[in-house]
Automatic annotation (TrEMBL):
This is Protein translocase subunit SecY. It comes from Spirosoma radiotolerans. The central subunit of the protein translocation channel SecYEG. Consists of two halves formed by TMs 1-5 and 6-10. These two domains form a lateral gate at the front which open onto the bilayer between TMs 2 and 7, and are clamped together by SecE at the back. The channel is closed by both a pore ring composed of hydrophobic SecY resides and a short helix (helix 2A) on the extracellular side of the membrane which forms a plug. The plug probably moves laterally to allow the channel to open. The ring and the pore may move independently. GO terms for biological process: intracellular protein transmembrane transport; protein targeting; protein transport by the Sec complex. HAMAP family: SecY (MF_01465). The gene is secY. It is found in: Cell membrane; Membrane. The keyword Membrane applies. GO terms for cellular component: plasma membrane. Gene3D superfamilies: SecY subunit domain.
Length: 439
């Protein structure tokens, strides 16, 4: 306890770090206040939205703003969609690849294109949200007038959320976009714990404590999955520059066990409505189609979770293949005078890295699939659906990743000021510093 108090004193003794933490809290407060403001022309007492599937996941990311018809109902998600689209275009089109290699100027142009695309994505999603989600009985004004006004308000709300994320990154602590998503998820945790405690009653106190202990170990497992890396040794050749001999050092190339992050779960979740939709078209004429529709309507059935797991494994390999390029890594190593001991530079190095990556991606994909279906298992064990969502899936992985990144930045400030780090056992490793070779 004394060490914890000392660490907090050290954190707030650094003027810059203290200012960044206070700025982050201020921006987060603005986001949460905006999430509670309902769109003009909507009667919140007549809203009875209970989004399921992908929409339910979106509502979790936004801290309930989606189901409340808030001015931040779309939140930062259109910007995430636009960023993913630009990332895929960067991998597929030479024009975007060239722009990415132009350094800071190229990144600024890509960011500008992403912002413009975000406005277009937001407009399309806003119209869809207004038309399909807000019921007529909840409107206090004409539907046409409400559609036009809400289109501008939702677009402005998304732009404001995007601005808040950028301000958190520049003036606060942590990655702003990820921080906003995490806050939306965490905002539901106290209510979920309270609801679970009420459902257990006084006679189920021991069982509730065991559930909290289980949640703790699940979080520790998610930390292991996020942090685990396979380190490949890299030897740098000695070079004579002037009168000095540089190089000759051994560094490590860390390949993450889960290089794809949460994207496979998001992609798989987006496709899980297809079996229910297709089977529903033939449900009246076919008993088999009706049974398929019933099996995939609930996320707790074994059929749903089996297909969900297979899609996650497939998307993990796919996303890892497009995000980690062994050929480019081998070329960069060759240009910097590095080589893997016992492996020839060039083609053999890229093949070696690709082989190692394939071997660690399979167990990583299986572990990611297990984490994704843990909420369904928790729900089958009798936990409330709100509390069960925190036992795995995208929500847990995002929370763990953002917290680790934030702690890494805090520790870097402490170490620069010659304070002790956050942990005696070693440095806190976020997602960022485990994806690059240490300098």
């Amino acid at each position: 306890m004394n060490r914890l108090i000392t660490t907090f004193k050290n954190i707030f003794a650094i003027d810059e770090l203290r200012g960044r933490i206070l700025n982050t809290l201020l921006f987060i407060t603005a986001f949460r206040l905006g999430s509670a403001i309902v769109l003009p022309g909507v009667d919140p007492n007549k809203l009875n939205l209970n989004p399921q599937g992908l929409l339910g996941l979106l509502d979790t990311f936004l801290g309930g703003a989606f189901s409340k018809a808030s001015i931040f109902a779309l939140g930062i998600m259109p910007y995430i969609s636009a960023s993913i689209a630009i990332q895929l275009l960067t991998l597929a089109l030479p024009y975007f690849q060239k722009m990415q290699k132009e350094g800071e100027s190229g990144r600024k142009r890509l960011n500008q294109i992403t912002r413009v695309l975000t406005i277009g994505v937001t407009a399309v999603q806003a119209i869809t949200y207004i038309r399909t989600t807000i019921p007529q009985e909840a409107l206090l004004i004409d539907r046409g007038l409400f559609t036009i006004s809400s289109l501008f308000i939702l677009t402005a709300g998304t732009i404001f959320c995007m601005w808040l994320g950028e301000r958190i990154t520049d003036k606060g602590i942590g990655n702003g976009i990820s921080m906003i998503i995490m806050i939306g998820i965490v905002s539901r945790l106290p209510g979920a714990i309270y609801g679970e405690a009420l459902s257990r009653g006084t006679g189920g106190s021991l069982l509730f404590v065991l559930e909290l202990v289980g949640l703790f170990f699940v979080i520790m497992g998610a930390v292991v999955l996020t942090q685990a890396v396979r380190r490949i040794p890299i030897q740098y050749a000695k070079q004579v520059i002037g009168n000095k001999v540089v190089g000759g050092q051994r560094q490590y190339l860390p390949l993450k066990l889960n290089a794809a992050g949460v994207m496979p779960i998001i992609f798989a979740q987006a496709l899980m409505f297809i079996p229910t939709y297709v089977a529903g078209l033939f449900a009246e004429k076919s008993d088999f189609a009706a049974s398929v529709q019933n099996a995939f309507q609930s996320y707790t059935t074994w059929q749903y979770n089996l297909l969900f797991s297979l899609l996650i494994i497939i998307f993990t390999f796919f996303y890892t293949a497009i995000s980690v390029n062994p050929v480019q890594i081998a070329d960069d190593m060759k240009r910097s005078g590095g080589f893997i001991p016992g492996v020839k530079p060039g083609l053999q190095t890229s093949e070696y890295i690709g082989t190692v990556l394939d071997r660690i991606t399979l167990p990583g994909a299986v572990m990611l699939a297990i984490v994704a279906i843990l909420p369904a298992i928790a729900n089958l064990l009798g936990m409330t659906s709100g509390f069960a969502q925190f036992f795995g899936g995208t929500s847990l992985l995002i929370m763990v990743g953002v917290v680790l990144d934030t702690l890494q930045q805090v520790e870097s400030y402490l170490l620069m000021r010659r304070y002790e780090g956050l942990m005696k056992s070693g440095r806190v490793q976020g997602r960022a510093n485990s994806e690059t070779v240490a300098a």
